[in-house]
UniProtKB/TrEMBL annotation:
This is Cysteine-rich receptor-like protein kinase 2. The chain crosses the membrane at residues 281-302, 669-692. Coiled coil: none annotated. SUPFAM superfamilies: Protein kinase-like (PK-like). Residues 1-23 form the signal peptide. Keywords: ATP-binding, Glycoprotein, Kinase, Membrane, Nucleotide-binding, Receptor, Repeat, Serine/threonine-protein kinase, Signal, Transferase, Transmembrane, Transmembrane helix. It comes from the Eukaryota. One of its GO terms (molecular function) is protein serine/threonine kinase activity. Residues 349-648, 723-998 form the Protein kinase domain. Residues 37-142, 153-259, 427-530, 541-647 form the Gnk2-homologous domain. ATP binds at residues 378, 761.
């Protein structure tokens, strides 16, 4: 969807976004008139390069590649790397502002390169910031996906020398609103860039210009956080006439002078999200309704208690209402929905919700009350349908991967079989390859668009016509349009507003849709017609309030009360009128004969319910504008406005008294609804009947699907002979593990957590993680139990036990080289899934040999997720209290609490050394008078070129090739380097599985006191 513009009176209000982050602010201000003067630059470490000559050559090669990419029109972001000498490889990224011409971009890039050449010499990295561009190079590539990486940058603001020449209060207000808007909008754009303007409300026709831009490879979360910091820092520049906030991830700038062309602004309103409405309705519940809730609660408790007594069955299987998707249930996973809920969510599986068809049924789009959009697959009942349904539940419920569709729930009711899946807005790939939209003709599209506008204008030219819809449909490029004028306008005034709206849409070009809001009219076109009856459909447009710049001149209390009462009344009355329109006035009780003017209008084709809901949100949002002298609330479904100045004639008001509730109701939202005891009794009977009917049907179709189950404590106690010592197979930091056989004959491992300060939290964490993660190298969770203080996990049973037993335990020396190398590769594969392939990045935090279990084929499975954590996508690391095992944990985490996925990488390196050597990381080796642990010993041997001696003497030398063993040792040592030098697990897996030997790659023993950047501030 392209954007839409907001016009306030005659002025078009363009809204925008901002926010950023960078290093320590400089007290020195700059001359911003010269846009190619470096704002700041930072140089890295000068003594970290092996060959200065090779590094300089590689850096020049990288810069040359970047410049070549910028030589293509429309390219504003580029990355490159040198192609020779891996020891001194150079990675680069550059970005120009999107308002630049090609020659302007190249000129700025050349200045940035000259700054590097003159000031940073042979440094191993540098950043250069200019107004028009940004250049960065490093000797590592991790910053491509994580620009801020390990650099502890703040977001310094650079303020202009002079204060604004405009009225300070109005200027500050305009800047803050503009930067706030572009802060929110920029992370939602496809290229992380917005340029926009804002008028200064001081009568001097002054304008504020601003841009916000994030590095394109950053995640949306990183962009959002960076711009938020930038916004907060730029706030301190006011009332300076200009200011900037810079960071390696983002850039934000404002000025009272234009620094981009007027036709280069971006419509940011589609990317802004309105505030959520606060409910003003207070519902009173009588004793009868309270009695209903009491009986229902007792009924549900009794039903759940009865089911929990059944041995081997799921603890309880109550199908939840669709509005409980995100809020009920402590542990997330596949849920059971009722047919009625899914039918309601899809409007009785109507055609308007249909988004696809397949060999086994249709797929519908649905939205729950919490706002979650889902796809519901309804299977055709026929030969193989039931079997296919069971098969799909079993498969999808046990598979988790970021590139596989996620199952949210299911439903069986009689012959109706439904799956609830995550919604993919772009649809299937075939539509982009040979679908109906692949051959869109610009000529045909513009012809249809102009035809639609012409028809709309013709309809509106008739006296008394304020709403019109039309469509142009030649070939496949149909255009559907709707237009509406305020009912207080004459035909001439309506057409004049419509013409302005059409002219505003011209910059939208070939966009497949747009909306334009003006005070006097509204225009919208789309390439689909469903929005006629459901304007909010796929628009994602909330109700947005636009408040005036000045407070009322009337007494505030009296003014606020008059506005609230008037808006409340017209909000209630408008949905009850035939044309969904009301204009009215209200006197301010101040003795000054002051009057409030207000209108409310819904798009005529919407339902009364949609109009009512939109009015409610508009009222709630406009409430926040007070005591501003005027305000508007806009949406694709409705419009509401108030002002202390007249904007319609006194004889154009509508008498709305007949449309208010009877008996002279105040008409305010917030009406208290009383429910009598008789109504409560009826509700009780109906509720009990429906619950009994649902319970009866569920008994007829009850089926156990494979997945995470809830076991009763008595069942697990019986299966482990009261958790006796003879069933005990292991102990861990949080409890014991028992071998058990459940009632269906399956051998399982039951992990019983010790009840302590953190036990409940760790239990919830492990259930949540294990129930959603599926991989051949990760332990499979089969069920769980929570009974008072008893917390238990039911896991797949690993007959061979843990890896440490085969390295230095009772089975020491029994693993051959092939088994050991497969174990190392399997652990790496499992960590790749946790870090990069699951829907969220997961850090295990406790990778060690005792947490690696082996199956019958000696394939490894990572276990014990009690300490695992989801890692925010927008952060390079998080600060947290240490939790893990000393000896396996990375130093930056153990000493400073800096948690990232590289903590698992370090632990993997230690485990790999243990597998190769057959020794524990805590084993001490005495070299003369010096005591060395396993890792120190490995580094000593590597630095002497003797690391082949690390291999376990129990391994037959005929089983391995020395080069392969040395390669794996070197990879393990790589994992224990400084965090900035550690490879990712996907890189490690690739090196282990495909490269016969490592390329020339420098590996250096860490000292953990040199991982810092040297900052040099330019002026």
């Amino acid at each position: 969807m392209s954007g839409f513009l907001v016009v306030q009176a005659v002025i078009i209000l363009s809204l925008v976004i901002l926010d950023l982050g960078v290093a320590q602010p400089s007290n020195k201000t700059i001359n911003i008139n010269n846009t190619n003067t470096p704002l700041k630059f930072y140089c890295g470490i000068n003594d970290a390069i092996i060959s200065p000559t090779a590094f300089s050559r590689n850096r020049n090669s990288t810069f040359s590649q970047l410049r070549n990419k910028f030589s293509t029109t429309g390219v504003f972001y580029a990355t490159a790397r040198s192609l020779e000498n891996d020891n001194d490889v150079v990675y680069g990224v550059a970005q120009c502002r999107n308002y630049l011409l090609l020659t302007e971009c190249l000129a700025c890039f050349d200045v940035a390169v000259s700054v590097v050449d003159q000031s940073c010499g042979s440094a191993n990295g540098a950043h250069v910031f200019l107004d028009n561009c940004f250049l960065r190079f490093e000797n590592y590539n991790a910053y491509y996906d994580d620009p801020q990486g390990t650099l502890d940058f703040a977001v310094p603001e650079i303020c202009g020398n002079d204060s604004t020449s405009q009225q300070t209060t109005a200027f500050n207000q305009a800047v803050k609103e503009l930067l706030s808007d572009i802060r929110f909008a920029t992370p939602k754009t496809s290229d992380f860039y917005i340029a926009s303007t804002r008028q200064v409300a001081n009568g001097a026709n002054a304008t504020v210009y601003a841009i916000a831009q994030c590095v394109e490879n950053a995640s949306q979360a990183i962009c959002k956080n960076c711009l938020s910091t930038a916004y907060n820092n730029l706030y301190s520049c006011l009332p300076a006439k200009e200011g900037r906030a810079i960071n390696v991830a983002c850039f934000m700038r404002y000025s009272e002078f234009p620094f981009f062309r007027n036709n280069q602004t971006i419509n940011l309103i589609p990317f802004l999200k309105g505030s959520s409405s606060k409910s003003s309705i207070i519902i009173g519940v009588s004793s009868g309704a309270g009695f209903v809730l009491l009986i229902l609660s007792l009924f549900l408790w009794f039903r759940r208690w009865r089911k929990s007594k059944a041995v081997g069955k799921v603890c309880f299987t109550v199908c939840l209402p669709y509005d409980a998707l995100e809020t009920s249930g402590e542990f997330q996973g596949t849920r059971c929905y009722t047919y009625q809920d899914l039918r309601l969510a899809t409007n009785n599986f109507s055609e308007e919700c249909l988004i696809g068809k397949g060999g086994f049924g249709e797929v519908f789009k649905a939205s729950v009350d919490s706002g979650i959009v889902m796809a519901i697959k309804k299977l055709h009942v026929g030969v193989g349908a039931k079997k296919g349904f069971e098969n799909e539940i079993n498969i999808i419920n046990n598979v988790r991967h970021r590139n596989l569709i996620k199952q949210l729930g299911w439903c069986i009711e009689g012959h109706d079989l439904l799956l609830v899946l995550e919604y993919i807005p772009q649809g299937s790939l075939d539509k982009f390859l040979w679908g109906s939209n692949y051959a869109m003709s610009p000529t045909t599209f513009f012809g249809n668009l102009n035809s639609t506008f012409s028809q709309l204008r013709s309809h509106l030219s008739n006296p008394g016509v304020y709403y019109a819809r039309a469509h142009g449909s030649e070939n496949e490029d149909a255009v559907y349009g709707v237009a509406q004028c305020r009912n207080y306008l004459s035909s001439t005034e309506c057409l004049a507003c419509f013409d302005v709206a059409v002219s505003i849409l011209q910059p939208c070009g070939l966009a497949n849709g747009a909306h334009v809001f003006l005070d006097n009219c509204f225009l919208r076109f789309e390439d689909y017609d469903q929005f006629y009856d459901d304007p909010d459909g796929g628009s994602n447009v909330e109700v947005l309030e636009l408040c005036g710049n000045e407070s009322t001149s009337q007494p505030i209390t009296a003014f606020n009360q008059a506005v609230q009462e008037l808006l409340s009344d017209i909000g209630v009355a408008t949905p009850r009128t035939s044309d969904f329109y009301i204009a009215s006035t209200r006197q301010v009780a101040s003795g000054a004969n002051a009057t409030i003017y207000a209108i409310a209008q819904c798009v005529e084709n919407v339902s009364q319910t949609i109009c009512k809901n939109c009015m409610t949100r508009a009222y709630n949002n406009l409430y926040k504008c007070l005591p501003s002298h005027e305000g508007r609330a806009i949406n694709v479904a409705c419009f509401m406005r108030y002002s202390e100045f007249p904007f319609f004639q006194n004889n154009q008001t509508v008498n709305f008294t007949p449309f208010l509730p009877s008996k002279g109701s105040s008409g305010k939202f917030g009406t208290t609804i009383g429910v009598s005891s008789s109504v409560g009794l009826v509700l009780l009977i109906v509720a009990l009947f429906l619950w009994f009917r649902r319970w009866s049907k569920s008994k007829a179709v009850e089926k156990e699907f494979k997945g995470v189950r809830c076991y009763s404590y008595e069942d697990l106690k019986l299966a482990t002979n009261n958790f006796s010592e003879e069933y005990l197979i292991g102990k861990g930091g949080f409890g014991e593990v028992f071998k058990a056989v459940v009632d269906n004959g399956i051998v399982v491992a039951v992990k019983k957590l010790r009840v302590g300060f953190r036990a409940k939290k760790e239990f919830e964490n492990e259930v949540n993680l294990n129930s959603n993660v599926r991989h051949r190298n990760l332990i499979l969770q089969l069920g769980w139990c929570s009974d008072g203080a008893e917390l238990l996990l039911v896991l797949e049973y690993m007959p061979q036990g843990s890896l440490d037993k085969f390295l230095w335990g009772e089975k020491k020396g029994t693993l051959n080289w092939k088994q050991r190398s497969d174990i190392i590769l399997g652990i790496a594969r499992g960590l790749v899934h946790l870090h990069e392939e699951f829907h969220f990045k997961i850090i295990h935090r406790d990778i060690k040999s005792s947490n690696i279990l082996l199956d019958d084929d000696f394939q490894p499975k990572i276990a014990d997720f009690g300490l695992a954590r989801f890692h925010p996508e927008d952060q390079t690391h998080v600060s947290t209290g240490f939790a893990g095992t000393m000896g396996y944990t990375a130093p930056e985490y153990a000493t400073r609490g800096r948690l990232s996925e590289k903590v698992d990488t370090y632990s993997f390196g230690i485990v790999a050394l243990e597998v190769i050597s057959g020794r524990s990381c805590s084993d001490v080796n005495y070299s003369g008078a010096q005591m060395e642990y396993l890792l120190d010993h490995a580094w000593q041997l590597y630095e002497k070129g003797m690391h082949i001696k690390m291999i376990d003497e129990a391994i037959d030398p005929n089983e391995y090739q020395e080069e392969n063993v040395k390669k794996i040792i070197e990879i393990a040592l790589m994992c224990t380097q400084l965090v900035s030098l550690r490879p990712t697990m996907s890189e490690i897996y690739l090196m282990l599985s495909s490269e016969p030997q490592l390329k020339q790659r420098q590996i250096s023993r860490p000292t953990y006191n040199v991982d810092r950047r040297i900052h040099i501030v330019g002026s």
